[in-house]
Design goal:
about 230 residues; mainly alpha; Ammonium transporter fold; Ammonium_transpt
Length: about 230
Amino acid sequence: MATAYNGTSGTADDGSSTGATNLNVFYDTGHLTFLTVSSVLVLLMIPGVGFFYSGLARRKSALQLVLLSMLSVAVIGFQWFFWGYSLAFSRTGNAFLGDLSQFGLMKTIAQPNGSSFLPDILFCLYQGMFASITPALAIGAVADRGRILPALVFMFVWSTAVYDPIAYWTWNPNGWLYKLPSYDFAGGGPVHISSGTCALAYSLMLGRRTGYSSNGGLPYRPHSPSA
């Protein structure tokens, strides 16, 4: 049975050394394994979304959509490490946004976060997968009308300005929605509502798809729904 975390693990608390104490005594292996497997499953959803969108688009956009869905992991992975996790899940901050106390994953190793059963670093990995899949869900708006490089820049900026604050409101104990209380266990707000409105706004800004008027305004047929 795991020992309750007592916050006295020396430099491990500061995120600089895991050798200061045996951190395994604070957490149960079953809990850690479950969340690790869950993180991998969410990661596998991201290329799944890309293949799904590529099958619903025209053939010429299929590769672009798969590529963008995978690049979201790279872009948001960097953003999450850089300051995304700190903005969304730092222990200090106001009711609307976290601070940069965990910038670059500083002090992000041993202390519990999200649950008394989970260490900060594993919780960061799990939430990072949700942060990565959210822009991937909205990326279908790029099909036939957007370019890859601007989309990557948009992912980084949008995650910082939109996703991280909404995740903070909803899931961080300091957030105003969390204190109402608002219960969102599966990401209906930070993930699905935000990605849906993002896709709508992106579509409106990019305009009609290439060749839309020459097709008589008719919807395109998906080239491979089974993909």
